[in-house]
């Protein structure tokens, strides 16, 4: 699973102009600071009864949930055969499931299956030779208990056939911040009444939602082979796991496609999709690599997905295990409930991965494609045995994004991935700090957070750096080959690394996988009598977070162009290290390679930071210097350094430099502004041009309208959006006609930027434009668009607002996504200041909201 919405307070998917378009996900927003501390409740973990009167716990420490062990194996799924038809009008699945099962150890006289909200027509035991026997059963609409004809031993395999109707659309509404609906199977525009939207059927099985459309043992520690027969209207394409082994046209105009997967995978990785898709074909080592997209995107499918064969080759070699599955297909579907899903050999993406040539000027989707490719080893080939061990799936997939970027786009681009991942984790850690592997949680989908993803990826990077590349990849190879087609827990990963390296690594796995938090370091140094003294203070709360053991490199720069590297290991809360140096160093740099997952406060002078930039060997060293000098931009030497950075060969450095120059007020103000204008109009990277426009807009009472107007004609939608943002508070007469013409632009980034522009500068003419896009935008865009709609309606006569107010109220009450509900609530709030009636509506919405985190957000507004 990729880039899920990660909780009410994180506001994931808040897209920023400066998002790393090449291979870094959009910014995942910010979270409120959690620096306050509170008294520990009596039930809080790690606090004894005698401590509660004196011990306080940090606000980021969640209360403990119940123990969540792996599911007990009573039966082993062997094989599943599904025969499925679909009633579009009723949004139902008419199915027959034939399950081949075997008792795991103890003899069994009952078979317990997960089956949510079915109508069961009959259940039969298949006896062979065409004979069968009816079986009785008990059913509570969640679990189906089948009474077998006798007790079966673990050496005996038997088959049960279940005829059923699945009604996922009639299940109680459920879901999480990570996966916004748990009904498993989705009918999109089933009656064909939504203009411009295709009719589709698709599934989302993770975590345990496939049992909403076929009976199974819906646990990650099960494995089965499968055969799925889909009977659909003849005009539709189908997709499922494995290979299409048969396709038969039926007399009634339907067609039955048979998909067969001969290799075993967990039930949550089963998928189907039906719809009008163009199938763009590719290959890798004789295996089909297919891209299913809406027909209008067929011409750009290879531009989006075309690196997939190279990824399969790269990771096959990297892991020493050739991609094992029968094919590799990817499909883009409408109204998807998460980011992407690694169903075995048939990955599902949301519609946003489809793009025009012009949109691809600003971004590619290699990061999410690589993430799902890696899952076919870590997650599909070897699967976490319980959701508590989810990082064994997601951390590796997250780290796969880094590995691919490092290989394809270079070390600097990979460092940006690393930097972004660290920042996203640290944002979440302001409000939540839990172990990576955690056997206590309230809901299994709580595991889909920035710990399991971004923190886990950084932990793997530290492990790689500690043991070295040769040992790291040899250990991964042995982990994969020994555990193929099985379910595992974290100790199996640890033991294979210990076997390869010969070192007891319990300390590493304990502090990084099994304990919460991260180091918070204060670094200072001094020089006296030929010695450099380096002091490292661990300032994290050591009641709930360990004192870390940190192997790290320290670079001491003298007068030569090469530093002396000292490898040290921090083991104490406050520790001094002494290095010999014949002269006062120009720079002492802790964590020289920026490998630690830590929050580091390093005391460096302005001269040291300038020296660091001048001698930096990579992007992160340059970025750290720029970031450390942001408050000194008025100094001539600093501004000269930043102007020099505007010409750096790596675009990420240029972005950092232009952002650091916001509100520059130094003596060379005119020259600096000319440089920024040059960057805004001529830089080769759209991200840099957009950042330069935003920086120009930060200079109050200065007119750069001609730059913004010219940017409205830029080839990049990112740049156009930045220009619209700049013009929002500084509109120009000459830009009006061009802005009006942008209303027809199909790009959602431009649409949301226009929404912000019209919120302050719109007229009644844009009312219908707002209403039409409320119907078409996705949840991430609506979160921003709906508050702007509310602000826009402040400018409308009250009699004109009714339709828009009703739409906002409906979304605030009923939208499946909390992001949309929050955005609609904020839109209504913008109108409620002078309306007692709307204040009453908002009060009622707050009272009836079931998401406690969202109610908390309402109370902050």
TrEMBL record:
<comment type="similarity">
    <text>Belongs to the peptidase M1 family.</text>
</comment>
<dbReference type="InterPro" id="IPR011989">
    <property type="entry name" value="ARM-like"/>
</dbReference>
<feature type="signal peptide">
    <location>
        <begin position="1"/>
        <end position="21"/>
    </location>
</feature>
<protein>
    <recommendedName>
        <fullName>Aminopeptidase N</fullName>
        <ecNumber>3.4.11.2</ecNumber>
    </recommendedName>
</protein>
<keyword id="KW-0645">Protease</keyword>
<feature type="domain" description="Aminopeptidase N-like N-terminal">
    <location>
        <begin position="81"/>
        <end position="269"/>
    </location>
</feature>
<feature type="region of interest" description="Disordered">
    <location>
        <begin position="26"/>
        <end position="50"/>
    </location>
</feature>
<dbReference type="GO" id="GO:0016285">
    <property type="term" value="F:alanyl aminopeptidase activity"/>
</dbReference>
<dbReference type="Pfam" id="PF17900">
    <property type="entry name" value="Peptidase_M1_N"/>
</dbReference>
<dbReference type="InterPro" id="IPR001930">
    <property type="entry name" value="Peptidase_M1"/>
</dbReference>
<dbReference type="InterPro" id="IPR014782">
    <property type="entry name" value="Peptidase_M1_dom"/>
</dbReference>
<dbReference type="GO" id="GO:0008270">
    <property type="term" value="F:zinc ion binding"/>
</dbReference>
<dbReference type="InterPro" id="IPR016024">
    <property type="entry name" value="ARM-type_fold"/>
</dbReference>
<dbReference type="InterPro" id="IPR050344">
    <property type="entry name" value="Peptidase_M1_aminopeptidases"/>
</dbReference>
<dbReference type="GO" id="GO:0043171">
    <property type="term" value="P:peptide catabolic process"/>
</dbReference>
<keyword id="KW-0732">Signal</keyword>
<dbReference type="InterPro" id="IPR027268">
    <property type="entry name" value="Peptidase_M4/M1_CTD_sf"/>
</dbReference>
<dbReference type="GO" id="GO:0005615">
    <property type="term" value="C:extracellular space"/>
</dbReference>
<keyword id="KW-0479">Metal-binding</keyword>
<keyword id="KW-0482">Metalloprotease</keyword>
<dbReference type="Pfam" id="PF13646">
    <property type="entry name" value="HEAT_2"/>
</dbReference>
<dbReference type="GO" id="GO:0016020">
    <property type="term" value="C:membrane"/>
</dbReference>
<dbReference type="GO" id="GO:0006508">
    <property type="term" value="P:proteolysis"/>
</dbReference>
<keyword id="KW-0031">Aminopeptidase</keyword>
<dbReference type="InterPro" id="IPR042097">
    <property type="entry name" value="Aminopeptidase_N-like_N_sf"/>
</dbReference>
<dbReference type="GO" id="GO:0070006">
    <property type="term" value="F:metalloaminopeptidase activity"/>
</dbReference>
<keyword id="KW-0378">Hydrolase</keyword>
<dbReference type="GO" id="GO:0042277">
    <property type="term" value="F:peptide binding"/>
</dbReference>
<feature type="domain" description="Peptidase M1 membrane alanine aminopeptidase">
    <location>
        <begin position="307"/>
        <end position="512"/>
    </location>
</feature>
<dbReference type="InterPro" id="IPR045357">
    <property type="entry name" value="Aminopeptidase_N-like_N"/>
</dbReference>
<dbReference type="Pfam" id="PF01433">
    <property type="entry name" value="Peptidase_M1"/>
</dbReference>
<dbReference type="GO" id="GO:0005737">
    <property type="term" value="C:cytoplasm"/>
</dbReference>
<keyword id="KW-0862">Zinc</keyword>
């Amino acid at each position: 699973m990729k880039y899920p919405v990660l909780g009410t307070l994180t506001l994931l998917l808040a897209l920023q102009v400066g998002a790393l378009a090449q291979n870094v996900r959009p910014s995942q927003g910010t979270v409120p600071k959690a620096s306050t501390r509170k008294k520990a409740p009596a039930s809080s973990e790690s606090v004894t009864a005698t401590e509660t009167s004196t011990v306080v716990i940090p606000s980021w420490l969640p209360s403990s949930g119940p123990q969540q062990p792996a599911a007990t194996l009573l039966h082993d799924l062997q094989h599943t055969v599904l025969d499925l038809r679909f009633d579009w009008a009723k949004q139902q699945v008419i199915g027959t499931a034939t399950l081949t099962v075997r008792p795991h150890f103890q003899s069994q006289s009952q078979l317990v299956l997960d089956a949510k909200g079915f109508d069961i027509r009959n259940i039969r035991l298949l006896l062979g030779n065409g004979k069968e026997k009816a079986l009785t059963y008990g059913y509570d609409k969640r679990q189906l208990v089948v009474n077998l004809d006798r007790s079966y031993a673990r050496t005996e395999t038997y088959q049960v056939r279940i005829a059923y109707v699945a009604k996922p659309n009639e299940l109680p509404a459920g879901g999480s911040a990570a996966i916004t609906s748990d009904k498993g199977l989705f009918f999109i525009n089933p009656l064909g009444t939504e203009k411009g939207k295709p009719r589709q059927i698709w599934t989302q099985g993770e975590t345990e939602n496939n049992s909403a459309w076929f009976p199974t043992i819906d646990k990650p520690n099960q494995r089965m082979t499968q055969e799925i027969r889909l009977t659909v209207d003849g005009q539709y394409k189908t997709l499922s796991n494995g290979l299409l082994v048969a396709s038969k046209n039926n007399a009634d105009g339907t067609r039955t496609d048979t998909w067969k997967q001969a290799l075993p995978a967990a039930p949550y990785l089963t998928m189907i999709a039906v719809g009008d898709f163009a199938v763009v074909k590719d290959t890798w080592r004789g295996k089909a690599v297919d891209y299913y997209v809406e027909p209008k995107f067929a011409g750009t499918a290879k531009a989006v997905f075309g690196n997939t064969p190279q990824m399969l080759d790269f990771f096959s070699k990297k892991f020493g295990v050739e991609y094992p599955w029968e094919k590799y297909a990817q499909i883009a579907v409408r109204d998807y409930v998460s980011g992407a899903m690694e169903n075995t050999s048939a990955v599902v993406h949301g519609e946003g991965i489809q793009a025009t040539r012009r949109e691809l000027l600003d971004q590619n989707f290699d990061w999410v494609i690589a993430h799902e490719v890696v899952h076919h080893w870590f997650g599909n080939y070897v699967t976490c045995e319980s959701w508590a061990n989810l990082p064994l799936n997601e951390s590796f997939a997250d780290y796969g994004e880094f590995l691919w970027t490092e290989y394809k786009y270079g070390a600097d681009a990979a460092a940006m991935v690393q930097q972004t991942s660290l920042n996203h984790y640290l944002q979440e850690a302001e409000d939540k700090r839990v172990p990576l592997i955690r056997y206590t949680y309230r809901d299994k989908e709580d595991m889909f957070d920035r710990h399991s993803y971004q923190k886990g990826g950084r932990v793997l990077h530290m492990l790689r750096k500690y043991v070295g590349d040769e040992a790291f990849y040899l250990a991964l190879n042995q982990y994969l080959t020994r555990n193929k087609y099985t379910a595992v827990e974290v100790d199996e990963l640890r033991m294979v690394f210990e076997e390869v390296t010969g070192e007891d690594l319990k300390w590493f796995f304990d502090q990084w996988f099994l304990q919460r938090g991260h180091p918070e370091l204060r670094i200072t140094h001094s020089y006296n009598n030929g010695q450099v003294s380096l002091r490292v203070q661990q300032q994290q709360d050591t009641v709930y977070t360990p004192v870390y053991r940190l192997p790290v490199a320290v670079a001491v720069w003298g007068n030569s162009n090469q530093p002396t590297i000292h490898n040290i290991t921090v083991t104490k809360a406050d520790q001094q290290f002494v290095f010999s140096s014949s002269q006062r160093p120009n720079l002492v740099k802790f964590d020289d390679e920026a490998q630690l997952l830590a929050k580091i406060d390093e005391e460096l002078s302005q001269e040291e930071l300038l020296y660091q930039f001048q001698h930096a060997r990579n992007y992160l060293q340059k970025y750290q210097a720029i970031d450390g000098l942001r408050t000194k931009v008025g100094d001539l030497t600093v501004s000269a350094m930043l102007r020099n950075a505007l010409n750096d060969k790596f675009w990420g450095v240029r972005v950092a430099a232009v952002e650091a120059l916001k509100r520059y007020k130094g003596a060379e103000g005119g020259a600096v502004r000319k440089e920024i204008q040059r960057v805004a109009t001529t830089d080769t990277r759209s991200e840099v041009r957009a950042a330069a426009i935003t920086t120009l807009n930060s200079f109050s009472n200065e007119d750069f309208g001609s730059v913004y107007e010219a940017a409205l004609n830029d080839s990049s939608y990112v740049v156009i959006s930045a220009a619209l943002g700049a013009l929002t508070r500084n509109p120009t007469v000459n830009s009006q006609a061009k802005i009006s013409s942008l209303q027809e632009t199909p790009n959602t980034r431009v649409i949301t930027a226009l929404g912000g522009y019209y919120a302050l500068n719109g007229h009644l003419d844009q009312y219908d434009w707002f209403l039409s896009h409320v119907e078409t935008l996705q949840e991430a865009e609506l979160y921003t668009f709906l508050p702007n709609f509310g602000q826009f309606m402040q400018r409308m006569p009250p009699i004109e607002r009714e339709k828009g107010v009703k739409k906002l109220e409906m979304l605030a009450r009923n939208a499946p996504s909390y992001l949309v509900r929050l955005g609609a609530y904020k839109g209504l709030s913008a109108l409620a200041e002078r309306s007692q009636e709307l204040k009453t509506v908002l009060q009622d919405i707050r009272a009836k909201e079931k998401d406690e985190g969202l109610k908390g957000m309402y109370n902050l507004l």
